[in-house]
Amino acid sequence: MKQLETNLDDMTPETLAYVQERLLASGASDVWYIPIVMKKSRPAVTLCVLCEEKQSQALVDFILQETTSWGVREFTCERTVLPTQETEIFLYGESVRVKYARVGNEYKCKPEYEDCARIARVQNMPLRQVQAEAKMKGEDRLAK
């Protein structure tokens, strides 16, 4: 894997969101920003991109074309990822996808945000409550 980084001190939040969206759509495994302070106390961000080595040049080219960056740092790194699976539960008559992974003798379980948000809107409930109920139902299913 490769990690790509560049510091950006002169881009709007809307443009940063666009860049993140496009990088993810272009195959980046993850994209994030770290707030930093540059020379002359200017607020800025470090754009970080995690990608497969074979995609790195295309993503570097994109970063240089779509941002104000004059250069991109590249690091080779390793990544350990839990093998995940997905199951489906029903909450308030609606389908919720739940991702899970086994860690030792236990499971990590996470309901899909978009599914929970949809139910929260329809049921006029707090999102946090829907997420907690979906997680509990997902964990119950996995325990059986």
UniProtKB/TrEMBL annotation:
Entry-linked InterPro entries: Ni_insertion
Keywords: Nickel
Cited Pfam families: Ni_insertion (PF01969)
Transmembrane segments: none
UniProt-recorded name of the protein: DUF111 domain-containing protein
Superkingdom to which the source organism belongs: Bacteria
